[in-house]
Design brief:
Structural class: alpha+beta
Radius of gyration: 23 Å
Shape: globular
Strand content: 15-25%
Distance between the termini: 44 Å
Oligomer: single chain
Number of strands: 21
Strand order of the largest sheet: 6-2-1-10-20-19
């Protein structure tokens, strides 16, 4: 059990030093810590019973360039390379000033997290990246994901500041307060059936995207995805986007919704609309994707949107009333690289099956074993780095038809929303009337403009830290409002 509420009673502090943070995921915790360091009294409000949100579910890691861990691994990378990959992934729809901040502050973001004792020494090359730059913890004897590790360490830091950072859980913020000039002056929130008003010097919105808002923003902006499975918790309903819009914030890229190519299908409950994410790192360490005929059909390390589209084109449902699905296979080397304990956890959940060799797998699923063997032999010929027919040029491991394998069944699922509130490089929320809305900041998934058409793996945790910290510092430096 983790992420307990630290406070359920607000102390008596004047609004002249108070900064309100709405949402207790990584962006909110980063903002709170920086605002407190800059002299503010911080109140974090979260509608859930515990903090963490989708940040606590993150598995692939955080991008950083150039880091000490890249240097130790002999990886040559630059912020310009990183910027180019981010813009290419976003099809050029990215707001370049935001991308500049993201990539230039990425090393500091990694250092910021490691300062709290987070291990980020394992570096992987995830989909859409030209070089390895996605950092996570080295595999251990116990199952863990990097998001949970980060949130637990950050929450410990927040708990150590009880006099200056207060946390109120099960407190749903319903609206922003504004003064006669249009500046944001606090929030209204509901707790225990009562409505409360909380004045503040500034408000930072960090309460996530709208991937679970099926009947709302998804139906309005991406109706073709309304009934697609999602990896998000039910809390991802776009509350902050709505509150920002209500005070004149500019909404951007609302139709840009990321469908992650690999969400686990549990054979015992194949049509559950909420899926457990099959981490991109599973493919980064050498996972191979196959259709129902035992053939590869895509670059496993391609862009998320391209890989999802390939599944929808080349694969068929493996369960009645199901969505198109692919097999994802890992050999022992890939399992070891990802973490045996983590794969064991997935297996205990029913997501992975183990087979002594590829023939046993083929027999169970009606695949021609000769076709499957040929697929693997062809794949192995390219391990030297020669690009294959799908454009893949990075092959972490060979897979012999005769070795033991772990097999999962995966399907695309709504994962992340690139759209939301437009911000500027100072994390200020922009108005529909041009310029920024005074005293309103945003960070994390509820913001828009950084990722464009498609987000790279590892850039979500990164934007939370980079822009959360910027928002916290700038909000704390706002001058007290005049009565």
């Amino acid at each position: 059990v983790f992420f307990p509420s630290t406070f359920n009673m607000l102390s008596e502090h004047t609004q002249t030093t108070r900064v309100v943070v709405v949402g207790g995921g990584l962006a909110g915790l980063s903002a709170a810590i920086e605002a407190e360091r800059a002299g503010a009294h911080v109140v974090i409000l979260d509608k859930e019973a515990r903090l963490g949100g989708n940040s606590a579910k993150a598995t692939s890691g955080i991008n950083g360039v150039p880091t000490e861990w890249q240097a130790k691994a002999g990886i040559h990378d630059t912020v310009d390379f990183f910027k180019a990959d981010t813009i290419k992934s976003g099809d050029g729809l990215n707001l370049l000033p935001l991308v500049d901040v993201l990539v230039h502050d990425s090393k500091d973001a990694v250092d910021f997290l490691t300062s709290f004792g987070v291990d980020l020494s394992e570096v992987s090359r995830c989909g859409g990246h030209g070089v390895p730059r996605t950092h996570r913890a080295k595999p251990t004897q116990k199952p863990m994901n990097i998001g949970m590790e980060i949130i637990s360490k950050m929450l410990a830091a927040v708990n150590a500041k009880k006099e200056t950072i207060e946390v109120l859980t099960q407190a749903k913020v319903t609206s922003l307060l504004t003064d006669l000039t249009g500046a944001v002056s606090g929030v209204k929130y509901e707790k225990d059936g009562q409505e409360h008003t909380l004045p503040s010097r500034a408000v930072i919105l960090t309460c996530g995207g709208y991937s679970a808002d099926r009947a709302g923003f998804l139906r309005q902006h991406a109706p073709h995805l309304e009934n697609v499975p999602t990896t998000n918790g039910p809390f991802a309903t776009g509350d902050g986007v709505r509150m920002g819009a209500a005070v004149g914030a500019h909404l951007l890229h609302m139709d840009k919704v990321q469908v992650h190519p690999t969400a686990f299908i549990n054979p015992a409950d194949p049509n559950n609309p909420t899926k457990f994410l099959a981490a991109e790192a599973l493919r980064a360490v050498g996972g191979v994707m196959l259709n129902s005929n035992g053939r590869r059909f895509t670059n496993e390390l391609g862009r998320r949107d391209h890989t999802s589209d390939a599944i929808l084109r080349s694969c068929t449902p493996l369960f009645p009333q199901g969505t198109p699905a692919s097999f994802l296979i890992l050999n022992a080397a890939a399992v070891s690289a990802f973490g045996e304990a983590a794969v064991g956890f997935y297996t205990s959940k029913g997501f992975f099956q183990q087979f002594e060799h590829s023939r046993a797998f083929a027999e169970k699923y009606g695949i021609d074993p000769a076709v499957l063997a040929q697929t693997l032999e062809t794949y192995n010929k390219n391990v030297d780095g020669t690009p294959d027919e799908f454009g893949k040029d990075f092959f972490p491991t060979k897979i012999s038809p005769d070795e033991a394998i772990h097999v999962s069944i995966i399907t695309p699922a709504v994962h992340y929303t690139m759209g939301g509130l437009e911000i500027d490089p100072h994390a200020k929320v922009m108005s529909t009337q041009h310029g920024a809305i005074p005293r309103l900041y945003g960070a994390g998934e509820l913001t828009a403009g950084i990722h464009g058409q498609n987000r790279l793996a590892g850039n979500s945790l990164l934007e939370c830290v980079v822009f959360g910290r910027i928002a916290g510092r700038n909000a704390a430096h706002e001058q007290p409002q005049q009565d």
